[in-house]
Write a structure and sequence with these properties.
Alpha-Beta Plaits; four-stranded antiparallel β-sheet; 4 strands
Length: about 190
């Protein structure tokens, strides 16, 4: 994953990925899938739009479009989202009584971060972002995102279109999804 690169571009589509610490299935264990809708709402309020996404048990992929009116850069938007999501994940782990994992996440916080008040290392500190330069690249990334639940080791559903934590149903079955902006509306 790329680290410490500031992504300032606006009127741009980015393919982003961030992962849970040590690839642990923290999103699933905490049942934090619904928490992403709060972040999606925040993004929309900042003029950053979700064009597609998949929430996996231990990582997240999305296509985000930052409008010229967006008052934050991509790094700030992702950092805020990861922070909001981390709080929800920790809360879910506490409710699920996953004390061993909570202790591990707590003990994994770097001293520097601990001094700033960080209590749990929920996500890898960096994230990956690739700018999508044309429609074909957007469509390729969207296809990758949507097939992720049934690719490789993943067998999270029978048909990728039916995976509930993805924008696949919006694009393939015209399911309503208030958080998605169709990529053709911004390209």
């Amino acid at each position: 994953m790329s680290t410490h690169r500031i992504h300032e571009a606006k009127h741009t589509v980015f393919f982003i990925t961030f992962t849970c610490f040590k690839w642990l299935p923290l999103i699933d264990l905490s049942n934090s899938y619904a928490a992403f809708s709060k972040w999606f709402e925040y993004l929309k309020s900042r003029e950053a739009f979700v064009l597609g996404y998949v929430i996996m048990p231990n990582h997240f992929h999305a296509l985000l479009f930052l409008d010229e009116k967006c008052d934050k850069n991509l790094n700030q938007l992702v950092a805020n989202g990861k922070r909001f999501l981390a709080y929800d994940i920790v809360k879910g782990l506490e409710v699920g009584e996953h004390q061993k994992i909570l202790n591990f996440l707590s003990n994994s916080v770097a001293n520097k971060e601990s001094l700033k008040g960080k209590k749990h290392q929920v996500f890898v500190s960096s994230f990956d972002a690739k700018e999508c330069f044309n429609r074909k690249m957007v469509e390729t990334k969207l296809d990758y995102i949507h097939h992720n639940p049934v690719s490789g080791k993943w067998h999270l559903c029978e048909d990728w279109i039916d995976y509930p934590y993805s924008s696949a149903g919006f694009y393939e079955s015209n399911q309503l999804n208030p958080w998605i902006t169709h990529y053709m509306d911004v390209i």
